[in-house]
Design a protein that fits this description.
The protein is an alpha/beta fold and 249 residues long. It has a single domain, classed as 3-Layer(aba) Sandwich (Rossmann fold), CATH 3.40.50.150. Helix content is 36%, strand content 20%. Helix 8 packs parallel to helix 9. The protein is globular. Bound molecules: S-adenosylmethionine. S-adenosylmethionine binds next to strand 2 and helix 7. This is Ribosomal RNA small subunit methyltransferase G.
Length: 249
Amino acid sequence: MREAASAGERAWLAEFAVDDERWRKFEVYYERLVAWNQQLNLTSITERREVFIKHFADSLAVVRLPEWRFVVHAPGAGVMDVGTGAGFPGLPLAICHPDIPFVLADAQAKRLRFLADVVAALGLHNVRLVHGRAEDLARDPAMRGRFAAVTARAVARLNVLLELTVPFCRVGGFVFAYKGPGVEEELAEGERAAGVLGAKLARIVPWELPEGMGSRRMVVTVQERPVPAKYPRKAGTPQRAPLGTGMHA
Ligand SMILES: C[S@@+](CC[C@H](N)C(=O)[O-])C[C@H]1O[C@@H](n2cnc3c(N)ncnc32)[C@H](O)[C@@H]1O
């Protein structure tokens, strides 16, 4: 393992108050990601600076939002990360919030094998890994309507994504969808989908990654009412007949 990060490197995550212990955890996460990536196709981003900025700093961006404070302070709060892949954004957030329970869910077992290795190496006790499709997992009473926040990055178009995420959210909780500038074009359908699901698009927050590595948008959705029992529809239907497009029954 590298001994000490330079001040320049520490600046990548500085605004998230990452102390020495957490920095070491990010170092281990990075090393395992690159090592496992030789066997599994986890990410196309492997250069150290890019991983720290485009994966780690990007994942932590939600911490800046006032809505996240609600998550941190909600009693018995928990966070569900849908389609976590190699752990983004859920695992960087779990490293920085050891007191909040996180569930990282993905449909691909191989990604969860990687995550199990990293979680053990980091000694994290606040992370549970769940294998399955969101459409099925959201039917489990232990997960449906339970979480103070649901996160997702690069999983689906906004209207589809909302059907995969909103059912995990408790009333009054938030869905944080990590998106790029192109999301503007998804908003009208997303707004209609949110309405069907008892949720509302609250706001879109733009931000810039450090070192000019790109523009991002966070779509913040608030859960206003319980999700109607018929959602999510069975696995595959949200993608085939997306809400908000006139294609769904
Ligand atoms: C492009 S990857 C993004 C991974 C990670 N969130 C990131 O930003 O790097 C999309 C991930 O979502 C998962 N996924 C897609 N649809 C899903 C569903 N319906 N239920 C659970 N996981 C799903 C895939 O298996 C894949 O790991």
